[in-house]
Amino acid sequence: QKEVEQDPGPLSVPEGAIVSLNCTYSNSAFQYFMWYRQYSRKGPELLMYTYSSGNKEDGRFTAQVDKSSKYISLFIRDSQPSDSATYLCAMSLYNFNKFYFGSGTKLNVKP
Amino acid sequence: SAVISQKPSRDICQRGTSLTIQCQVDSQVTMMFWYRQQPGQSLTLIATANQGSEATYESGFVIDKFPISRPNLTFSTLTVSNMSPEDSSIYLCSVVTGEKLFFGSGTQLSVL
Fold first, then answer.
1. Is A43 close to B108, i.e. CB distance below 8 A?
2. Closest CA to A33 of A42, A20, A22, A41
C-alpha cells in the first residue's frame, strides 16, 4: 500500500466550477500537508501548506485536513483555464527529512 | 520562501555521456533534495544532500550513477552518469526552508 494515494484523473471541468482534489494517507505520524501545482515541464509550485486539522483559505484555494480520517482536500473556487495543471499533494513528518507525494491529479479547466 | 535556480533547464544528450545539473539557492539551507520525475509520474527521491556530509541515496539509486556534490549551504550539483534512454526524466532540486519544501524549475533531460 502506498503511503499517499491520489486519484490521477484526468479531471475536466468547465470554467467557473468548484474543483475538489483529494488525497488519503496511511501514516498517522504525518504532521505537515502541502499542495503543489505543476505546469507541464516545470517544477512544482507550492500552493498551500498546513499542519493542523481544519481549513485554510488563500484566495480561491482552500486546503482541508482531516487527520482523524487521514484525508486531505484542495478546493478551487471559480476555476480558471490557467488552473489547468497537475496538482500534487505532499506530506512530511515533524522533522522534514523526507516528503511523501501523491501521484498527482491532472486538471483541465475548459473555457 | 526560497528562490532556486536550476541549470540547464533542458538538454538532449547522447547515450553513454554524463550531464551535471546545478542548483543555486538564494539563501543558506541545510537540507537539499534531488528528485526525478519520469513522464506522467510523481516525484521519486534520488538522494538527500546535506552540507558537510555524504549524500544519502534512496533504494535504487547509487553514487556511481548519480554523484552529488554539496560544497556549501547554497549550492549543489547532481551528475547523471553513463546515461541511457531510461534516464530521460525531469530532474528537480528542492530545499526545505521555513518548514516548507520549495522546488527549482527542473531540468528536462532527454537521452537518445
1. no
2. A22
